Amino acid sequence: MATTALAMLDQKLLPSPAATAGFGGSDRLSQEIFSILESKFLFGGVAPPDLGACSAGRVRVLSIDGGADGGALAAAALVRLERRLQELSGNPDARVVDFFDLAAGSGAGGFLAAALFARRMPADAARDVVVKNRKVLSGRGGGGLFFRRPEAAFKKVFGDLTVRDAAKPLLIPCYDMASAAPFVFSRADAVEADAFDFPLWQVCAAACGVGPAEVASLDGRTRLRAAAAAGGGGASAAVANPTAVAVTHVLHNKREFPFASGAGDLVVLSLGGNAGSAALRPSSSSLLRIAGACQADMVDQAVSMAFGESRATNYIRIQGNGIAPGETAEAALTERGVESVLFRGKKLMPQTNGERLDGVAEQLVREHHRRLESKTPVVLVKPSATPRTSSSSASTLITVSTNSSDDSP
């Protein structure tokens, strides 16, 4: 097998020494070798699709992790981002949703994505909800005002809103116990039919692993049993980082994103959680947190590799590297950013998380102004009143449970 692998890397495929100069030397070489092997496997030696950016503009994607911190770091990052967007755009009423084309969130990130995109909630108001209900959003059961019925926190925020009511594409993954498979709540599917539309408060409760055991669509045809949190973020451990879900949705949903053909056509902001200090005593909850963190980092590394050299500008990952007890989530924004590197673990970046968020805000505002002057729409969002018969997830991820639950509202 080793001989075969070496044979694949013949002289015409190997990068020249000049190509590796000035770009980290062996790091550049390792990445190019990995890319060559991957291309061989995926495309049979044929050149992979062109990843150059299209002239129409870039699709702006917001991805928010669940995280064992209950979304605290992501919420703080969104507050800073929104304030910076307001300053740069000159519009004090600007919201995060105005500068993104799609949001994906798992666990607490699902709540934040839904609050911003369906309620048009200001980022600081969403952060306040996260702070007051941190135990619920981290999947650790009740707390505060909602101890007996933790899902009441979501019902109070969303009321009768459903997935279809999101202003822009929205994706919230969870884990369905009935089919032992992931399930993605999608606005694209919800617009298509009531069988794919769900109350948002139930969706967020399912993503965090609290609330009703069974979640049913508006017409009752689609049902799933959400995984319980199991004492600390277990519900979102299987889909902790939804970035890959978001990128795949954009690249395969040509109705809404007609010009997105590769990584170069996207700008992705991925908000992670804070690693914190792991529990020294082994327990089911600590192992679940480790599993979730591992999944998030693996997705981060894979997506980063897909963006290649454009990852410095087109893919921005914000995550904490552990905050000392007693410090706030805002403290992580003053720390240097952390990057997950293939085969190398994590390394500190020269910029702080806050500085990187400011850079993203500048990109988003430039893209916003460019679109105002362009006659070519980058995104064609389906209106909720016009169903269609095409979806990127309905044919593969919709599962139906024949079992019912007495806890279903």
TrEMBL record:
Keywords tagged on the record: Hydrolase, Lipid degradation, Lipid metabolism, Plant defense
Record domain PNPLA: where: 62-247
Bias (Low complexity) ranges: 384-402
CDD domains with a match to the protein in the record: Pat17_PNPLA8_PNPLA9_like
Documented EC number(s): 3.1.1.-
GO molecular function per UniProt: hydrolase activity
GO biological process, one term: defense response
Function: Lipolytic acyl hydrolase (LAH).
PANTHER family: OS06G0677000 PROTEIN (PTHR32241:SF16), PATATIN-LIKE PROTEIN 6 (PTHR32241)
Family membership: Belongs to the patatin family.
Protein's UniProt name: Patatin
Provenance organism: Eragrostis curvula
